[in-house]
Amino acid sequence: MIRLDGKETSNTIKEEIKVQVTEMKAKGERVPHLAAVLVGTDGASLTYVGSKVRSCEYVGFESSLIQMEETISEEELLTQIDALNKDERIDGYIVQLPLPKHINEEKILLAIDPKKDVDGFHPANFGRMALDLEAFTPATPYGIMQLLERYKVPTSGKHCVVVGRSHIVGRPISILMSQRGPAGDATVTVAHSRTKNLAELTKQADIVVMALGIPEFLKADMVKEGAAIIDVGITRVADKTHPKGYVIKGDVAFDEVAEKASYITPVPGGVGPMTIAMLLKNTLLARQWNQD
Predict the structure, then answer these.
(1) Mean pLDDT of the chain, nearest integer
(2) Which residues touch 84 (CB under 8 Å, ≥6 apart)?
(3) Is 207 helix (H, G, I), strand (E, B) or coil?
(4) Domain 28-113 adopts which CATH fold?
(5) How confident is the model at residue 292 (pLDDT cuts 50, 70, 90)?
(6) Catalytic residue numbers?
(7) Of 16, 54, 10, 56, whose CA–CA distance to 33 is shortest?
(8) Longest CA span, the chain
(9) Which pLDDT belongs to residue 269?
(10) Domain ranges in the chain?
(11) Mean pLDDT for the stretch of residues 71-82
(12) 3-state SS of 40-91?
């Protein structure tokens, strides 16, 4: 069994980006600039955005954090987005989700300039990705593809079952894995909450991508010997014995499934760290587009 180490791989990618930024500086070019908009004070969002800012600093990017009160109106947020769209110093930016309930997330995401949408959530980018054109790929699916490629996990002609159909992970990864490429050419089945006899599907799969959000849902008796397991799930589970009062669990019962798997991502330390690394790669691409 081979652990797909997202932490180590993401660090390698950051080093690659750092080299490119150093070369840009040596040529006197402006370095990439990533901005993040954070509405409210959600703890998980603050932690995630803070990690993005530190990663930008490490690779040599400029970064801006725009914090807004949770009580702001939708119109105020749209005004901020319009300003970022027009700011030529900003190559790409993200609006941290989830947003407060009184703000329409879809309306906000549609207002982002597709050329600055480094999260890859805008329909223009999703459509270009689906057509195999150059686009900002959603960071988590992009990170999964990089893990598969860099660890040389066999995907060509393999049966991949994706459990989950969200626009952020499930649907895009199903498209990417079916496309031609070093981590593609798979035959993909998308399963979801209405799928009947899910275990029968996962038992047939050479590759299982779990993006369901239910802790330890995938058990050993649901996978076949030698399957590759990608766990996207990340849920805080209460644990009074832990200093933080909780532990992080994935969608896969790791210890028992690992005994049957050929490749597996741990949680934490698997797909999670790759997401930020891919956000940096998208920002670098945005800078190149702006330069051209």
Answers:
(1) 94
(2) 35, 37, 66, 90, 93, 113, 116
(3) strand
(4) Rossmann fold (3.40.50)
(5) low
(6) 52, 96, 119
(7) 56
(8) 59
(9) 94
(10) 28-113, 139-272
(11) 96
(12) CCCHHHHHHHHHHHHHHHHHCCEEEEEEECCCCCHHHHHHHHHHHHHCCCCC
Rounded average pLDDT over 23-42: 92
Render the burial of 38-50: b for 16+ CB within 10 Å, e for the rest.
bbbebeebeebbe
**Which of 17, 97, 90, 16 has the alpha carbon at shortest distance from 49?**
97
- Angle 170-178/123-130 helices, nearest 10 degrees? 30
Whether residue 91 contacts residue 40, with contact meaning beta carbons closer than 8 Å, is answered with no
Cα-based torsion angle of the residue sequence 56, 58, 61, 67 in order, rounded to the nearest 10 degrees: 30
Contact 80, 23 (CB under 8 A): no
Contacts of 247 (CB under 8 A, 6+ apart): 236, 237, 239
Does residue 248 contact residue 273 with C-beta atoms inside 8 Å?
A: no
Q: pTM for the complete prediction?
A: 0.93
pLDDT digits (tens, 9 = 90+) for 130-150: 999 999 999 999 999 999 999
**Residue 88, phi-psi category: left (phi > 0), alpha (psi -120 to 50), beta (remainder):** alpha
In terms of CATH architecture, what is 139-272?
3-Layer(aba) Sandwich (3.40)
Q: What is the reported pLDDT for 48?
A: 79
